[in-house]
Amino acid sequence: MLLSLAQWLQSLSPEFGYFRVFQYLTFRAVMAALTALLMGLAAGPFVIRKLAALKIGQPIRGYAMASHLSKSGTPTMGGVLILLCIAVSTLLWVDLTNRFVWIVLLVTLGFGAIGWVDDWRKVVNKDPEGMRSREKYFWQSVIGLLAALYLVFSISESSNLRVLELFFKWVQSGFDVNLPPKAGLLLPFFKEVSYPLGVFGFVILTYLVIVGSSNAVNLTDGLDGLAIMPVVMVGSSLGVFAYVTGSAVYSKYLFFPHIPGSGELLIFCSAMAGAGLAFLWFNTHPAQVFMGDVGALALGGALGTIAVIVRQEIVLAIMGGIFVVEALSVMLQVSYFKYTKRKYGQGQRLLKMAPLHHHFEKSGWNETQVVVRFWIITMLLCLVGLSTLKLR
Prior knowledge:
Number of helices: 15
Radius of gyration: 22 Å
Number of strands: 2
Strand order of the largest sheet: 1-2
Largest sheet: 2 strands, antiparallel
Shape: globular
């Protein structure tokens, strides 16, 4: 919005030439982060008071750890604050004609809507389980598949009209259209090595990355500040990849695929970082507010969508290793319990409690130790991910 305004003012008179600074992506990224951060810090107390007045308090499951019982009633659905800051800051500073930003925003807000319904049922119906898994997964799948079907053709095309033409061409050809190499699965640490996926392969991979990231972040969001700081670090790192792939110069120099328009995602990533830090101000232990599913599902979906656009799905798995391990811990715990119950008549557990952060709590770590150590691990993993920019 502000970019369009600056361009209009420049066209009126040469005296407004200093507005050229708005054309610099790095300037707008910094301003987007500051806008989201200051907006979040300013609006945070009001949002928390409003959530408390509406009695939107976090219900605690009956099988939760005893140390978490004191958190019952803490305002939840604070993810609304994060999404509001991201949306406003992004729309202020981004190029509104950029298609990638819009698809990421739509996926983020779509998953946020699913989380809103889930949280609302927990609060209004006093049901700690909220939306049932099957229903939640269905709506996640709808959004994930729609995003995948759009992205499969938009990676190589610069206009929505061409994307639509390619889609109809794909249908008319009997679902047989070859994708360019940059739409393949890129391997980190290797120059120009990618595996062709085809349209169906790309759609399936994109769907799994978006839906998987959303649920992985949601499972990680179980302790004060545990999920939001890794989201900030991983999102900021993906912003660097977006800047590189969006630049014809840097992408060529670093042997990355050039994806015109992807650089604008740096604005979204910066806004997400600013909004996340503002939320952390209120979410640090002892938390004044929880983000709830409305925040966790949305932020996870955003990370997955950005990673697909900049062709860094594997790097996302590396940098978001904490999210991956947390999700795997739940899957292994449930699978092993069902297997042993079926075989021996009594279920057994691999971990003391899942997700993994609860296992460490039961092993003697206090909440702050778990959170800060997971942050440190994420920082190291993000550095490993960023090293793939040059170590190839």
